[in-house]
Specification:
Structural class: mainly alpha
Order of helices and strands: HHHHHH
Length: about 150
């Protein structure tokens, strides 16, 4: 079983940048999650999370491109598939559905952001990540090959 994620090891300057990136993405996904139409929030939420993953990679000098980030986000979201279905179904409830959809999107993005930040920090220190689904080698290789992608 993986240990609980800790922000304690991340240096303060990097931690501050992580907070800004993760919270900005969470606000964006919350706004998208409030869209009262089922499934209409999927693309904007995914886009915000992909952008967040790429930006977090930059903080830790990991050249994570959009292609790699696009592979990380669905894997993490798949782990929370029940939340996705729940978020879509509650949108059928006027007003309350939008609030619940937004709150769920924010929570999922915050969780994903801190998991990625912790694992990227570990990778940057030469340690094994805990949650990026054992794809470290592939992520690093693909990220390096994507340096020219922008």
């Amino acid at each position: 079983m993986a240990k609980a994620k800790s922000k304690a090891g991340i240096p303060p300057e990097q931690l501050k940048k992580c907070h800004a990136i993760i919270h900005t993405a969470a606000v964006a996904t919350g706004a998208a999650g409030a869209i009262p139409i089922p499934v209409a929030d999927t693309l904007p939420i995914t886009a915000a999370q992909v952008t967040m993953v790429v930006a977090l990679g930059k903080i830790f000098d990991l050249p994570i491109g959009k292609t790699v980030a696009k592979s990380i986000v669905p894997l993490a979201v798949t782990k929370g598939a029940g939340f996705y279905v729940f978020r879509q179904l509650v949108k059928l409830i006027p007003k309350a559905g939008s609030i619940i959809g937004a709150a769920t999107a924010v929570a999922m993005t915050e969780g994903l952001g801190w998991i990625v930040a912790d694992d990227f920090y570990r990778i940057s220190k030469g340690e094994e990540p805990e949650d990026i689904l054992a794809a470290v080698d592939d992520i690093q290789k693909a990220g390096i090959m994507e340096q020219n992608e922008a």
